[in-house]
Amino acid sequence: MSYSFDCVVDTAELAHSVNSVKKHVDTTTGAVVAMKAAVIKAEEEGADHVCRKVNQGFYSMIHSQISQKMATLQSRVDAQLMRLNQQRKQLTGIRRRMERDYQMISARYSKLFNALNRNLRQRVTELDRPIMDLATTDADQVTNRSNQMVAAVPLGQAESVKTSQRLATSNLKRRAADAIVTIERFIAASNRLQAVTDSILLRRRAEAPDSMLTVPVAVVESNYDNSGNTQTSTYVSAIGISDQARTAIQNRFSQDAREGALPWSETAAIDPELANQFRQIVAASGLDPRRQQTIIQMFEAHPFQTF
User: Domain limits at 117?
Assistant: First the structure.
């Protein structure tokens, strides 16, 4: 058995409630959206603030480092500039002192060389006085004699021609006589200069291939003990002769001394020149004064023989 009921449901209240809830939901949705936008904006502002602070700190750090490096480099540059300025002043002082010394030395040497030049010019002039006289005085006259020897021949009548010719001939004779006197004076001066030069300079003498040469020879006979044994030594000067000739002379005198062929003779007095030479040799030996004095006394006390 079935039953049916007719129900009438009023949805106005529900619709009104739903509409009210919808308004609240819309308000909540708007608030959430606004809050989300505010949060996003706040996050963006915070991120921008953090980025600005980070950038500002980085830039500040870089700026401080660059400033420190600039200050360090500036101090180095200032120190180098001060050092360079000091060195510049020192170099300027050295240059001024060198310039002053150079001027002083150059002036002194200029005076010295000018004096030497004047002295040498005077000496050369005195040595070549005839040539200088010829170049300064006689050469002009000899060079211009063609102009000076022209006679003034007047133009006139036929009877004055002989007189003019005689005047020209007389002028030529006088000029020729002056030239002869000048040449004679030049030759005499040249001869005097040659004589002075010959007296100053050393002449080379040609030696003959076969000539007699005197060579000093010393034959020394020594007695070293009381047995009477003697030893003879021959010394030949090595100046002016060859070793072969020196050896031959030593052998010849040694043989003559052994054979007794040398005509020895006692010396009455010591030659002063020989004694002077012996004293010079002893003085140049480098021995102490006592030994030198003993050697000289022995030389003066013991006579020697010559042949």
Answer: 14-127
